[in-house]
Amino acid sequence: MSLDNAAMTIYGDSISGNCLKVKFVADRRGIPYNWIETSVLKAETRTPEFLALNPAGQVPLATFADGGVLAQSNAIMLHLAHGTDLIPHDAYERALMFQWLFWEQYSHEPALAVLRFQKLYLGKSDSEIDPNLRPRCLRVLTLMDEHLAGKSHFVAGRLTLADIALVAYTRFAHDAGLDLADYPNVQAWVRRVEDELKIEHAN
Ligand SMILES: N[C@@H](CCC(=O)N[C@@H](CS)C(=O)NCC(=O)O)C(=O)O
User: Fold this and answer.
1) pLDDT tens across 66-121, in order?
2) Which pLDDT score is estimated for 2?
3) Minimal-distance CA residue to ligand 1 atom 5
4) Of all protein residues, whose CA lies closest to atom 1 belonging to ligand 1?
């Protein structure tokens, strides 16, 4: 799908880190888009109209003027960032970026995003939440903190999609009852990436 003359529409829920990832990349690149607020809590991802666009019933979803439809936050980011410095040109560094993108989807997001959603949006008490979830979050944050020791960014010494994917929910860790002050490298990196993306500090 061509981004030239782009008339891109993003279906997204503003409370969702996955959706904000797409917004961050589009804004950084100056790609114009029409944002259609699509609430997960109001089940707007489950209407017949939305399911016709994305049978998976999930946001974010991007549609393009030439008929293309793209789901999955990291896939959309990759498309929007094609050919830019947000994706390392060096093959090894690019693979390292993918390593973190896959880890984000398989290990990070299912811990931090889920704990945040259950506590903040579903209002569950600690006794109603899977007791393994918080320890998983702590392991995720410890791994990130150790990786970031002496580093400014996850890969290549500069901002890449790995940082944008990982910052999306890490910056909301406090919503999940997690204190980033216990992870000083992560805390400093979150601030750095928020500043680079020109977004407000979430905490
Ligand atoms: N792996 C997907 C996850 C998308 C996802 O879980 N979206 C949530 C909001 S963050 C959603 O639409 N949930 C609605 C539902 O599953 O009914 C991505 O990165 O885009």
Assistant:
1) 999 999 999 999 999 999 999 999 999 999 999 999 999 999 999 999 999 999 99
2) 58
3) 58
4) 72
What distance in angstroms lies between residue 90's CA and the mean position of ligand 1's atoms? 31
Task: Say if domain 91-197 classifies as CATH 1.20.1050.10.
Answer: yes
Residues 172, 116: contact at Cβ < 8 Å?
Answer: yes
Domain with CATH 3.40.30.10 in the chain: 8-80
Choose the CATH number for 8-80 among 3.40.30.10, 3.40.1000.70, 3.40.50.300, 3.90.700.10. Answer: 3.40.30.10
Ligand 1, residues at Cβ distance < 6 Å: 13, 16, 18, 40, 45, 57-60, 72-74, 105
For CA atoms 156, 190, 32, 63, the dihedral sign is positive
Q: What is the pLDDT of residues 118-129, one digit of tens each?
A: 999 999 999 999
Q: What is the CA radius of gyration of the chain?
A: 17
Residue 76 alpha carbon, nearest atom of ligand 1: 20
44 closest CA partner among 70, 78, 19: 19
